Amino acid sequence: MTPMPQEQTLDLITVDQLLEKVQAMHQQGYRLVQISATRLPDRLELTYSFALDGRVAQFRLHLAEDSPRVPSISSIYWCAFLYENEMHDLFNLTVEGMAVDFKGTLYKTAVKFPFGSTKPPVVKAVTATATTASSAPAPVPPPPSATATTH
Amino acid sequence: MLPAYTVEMVKAGNMPALRACRETSALVTDTSPMPRTIIPFGPQHPVLPEPVHLDLVVEDEKVLEARPSIGFIHRGLEKLVEKKDYVEFVYIAERICGICSFIHGQTYCQAIETIMNIAVPPRALYLRTVWGELSRIHSHLLWLGLMADAVGFESLFMHSWRVRERVLNIIEATTGGRVIFGSCKIGGVRRDIAADAIKQLLVDLKKIEQDTRDITNVFLNDSSVKDRLCGVGVLSRQDAYDLGCVGPVLRASGVAQDMRQLGYAAFKDLDFAPITRTEGDSYARCAVRCQELFQSMEIIRQALAKIPEGEIAVKVTGNPNGEVLARTEQPRGEVAYCLKANGSKNLQRFRVRTPTFANLPAMLKMLPGCDLADVPVLVLTIDPCISCTER
Questions:
Q1: What is the pTM of this model?
Q2: A121, B154, B168, B360: which is deepest, by most CB within 10 A?
Q3: Considering the domain boundaries, does residue B285 fall inside one?
């Protein structure tokens, strides 16, 4: 059997370009393979993967920690709502305009946003004993993000 | 003329009129819909081997809407990549699913091998192909049994699983495991199959093929099975493609897409073509799986006839740095592995899009309009694997 020719591309785009790029994929007959999020130290990285036979086209978005908001592509690829709800439930990413919005109930996890939240980390109160025992200063909690949102 | 219920009577709550209808035993000639009811389906249900919940909005016996609720057993395996190094992580990948465990491990290894540019010995590629196809056979036989159970054909369920047991025996004899093989590793495989074991495998396969033919003849020709499957849950070619379906669900709607055509492992050296049907109903999905059983047996024979001698693994050193989207064909359809490595021993991101995850939207599209009694068949028809979905 002759294997299908394979090719993978990865383009960095902005949030504003997302719907336009996804629409172009749809018009060319590509299907949605997956959407994934990756928590990086200073930002959230989204990857949209589309495929047509052996060709894979991927778009990458970087979302700043204080603006984790992205438009839904479920108006173009209806099936995207599952990936988008998953990203919300695991990463606390706000996806606007999902075709089906589970409002944070797709996954029933013991820990809220187990793959990393955009909320500031909760710093445990330092006990008096620990403070006296340690010479290091108590960690200062970061200021809360004004734009961090939840459903 | 006898009085009958009317929509107006029901809407207005005109009890005297309604009582009069009852007292005179009037036939209900009105076809107005009954009030909508929500029937919970799952997460524990006789036809469901794993938990998924559906709120079925029904009107009389017709399903109008299905609202899914998953996530009862989400394990966060993707997150474990931060704790297990990339070599150990093969074991985690294999444990995503108990049915297609080998192909999960294989896909993970292929992704790492692509990033690290590792040339896997040809014999290892053929062995991976053989074990992958044995996995497909036992997965499809498992599904056939579950489907027989769903349509109330208990003896057919028993026969399907009886034959599957013999496939598991082959897997146990060649890998040492029945569910988790543990035979795939980065750079090759851990075990070889000796020449005398190959001969025995081929003999066993012939017997399995004959029994499988008997079983699939019932699935494809018995009127009681066909009555439950034909015309149920029709998915057009366009809908199946637009909804992102994969595997037998997509091929049963006429789309000849099979990731084995990418030529990974030994598939580039073997002859096969995707099996498709055009009806797009539950019967077509069943028929595709039945035919794929024999296709997999043929692929195994081809692979074992051509398997080259030589090493089964190469030594792997260093850490991966790069990223890749690896795709293979599991029994339920295409699985996509997104791996991102940054040169350390732990991957930065491990993301799996399993076939069931891709087929869930199609299930939600198929359920509205079906009879309540067909819901189990329609849920099973996508061969749902909740372990995979909630990796």
A1: 0.83
A2: B360
A3: yes
- Domain annotation covers residue B59: no
A6, A53, A105: residue with CB nearest B69: A105
State the total domains in chain B.
2
Regarding whether B153 and B24 lie in a shared domain, the answer is no
**B113 and B3 share a domain?**
no
CB atoms < 10 A from the CB of B308, how many?
Answer: 11
DSSP state of A17: G
Q: Which residue has the tokens 């090719």?
A: A7
CB-CB under 8 Å, A33 with B327: yes
Q: What angle do CA B316, B319, B322 make, to 5 degrees?
A: 115
Expressed as residue numbers, the domain containing B10 is: 1-32
Taking an 8 Å cut-off on Cβ atoms, the answer to whether A107 and B71 are in contact is: yes
* pLDDT (tens digit per residue) in A94-133: 899 888 888 887 877 778 887 876 554 454 554 444 443 4
Minimal C-alpha gap between A87 and chain B (Å): 12
| Pair of tokens at residue A2 | 């002759």
Question: Which CATH number is A7-117 given?
Answer: 3.30.460.80
Q: How far is B375 from chain A (nearest CA, A)?
A: 20
Q: Do A79 and B268 touch (CB under 8 A)?
A: no
- Two structure tokens written together for B227: 């009555």
Interface contact A108-B71, CB threshold 8 A: yes
| Binding-site residues on chain A for chain B (CB distance < 8 A) | 1-4, 6, 8, 10, 31-34, 36, 38, 40, 47, 49, 51, 53-54, 56, 58, 77-79, 81-83, 89, 105-109, 114-115
Cβ–Cβ of B325/A8 closer than 8 Å? Answer: yes
CA distance A36 to chain B (A): 7
User: Which pLDDT value is given to residue B14?
Assistant: 59
- Model pLDDT, residue B20: 55
Same domain for B86 and B15, yes or no, is no
Q: Do B243 and A105 touch (CB under 8 A)?
A: no
Same domain, B125 and B7: no
A64 close to A94: Cβ distance less than 8 angstroms: no
Q: What is the pLDDT at residue B288?
A: 95
CA proximity to B136, closest of B173, B109, B97, B183: B97
* Kind and range of the H or E run holding B136: helix B122-150
Q: Is B69 within a domain?
A: no
Calculate mean pLDDT across residues B339-368: 89
| Cβ proximity of B21 and B3 under 8 Å | yes
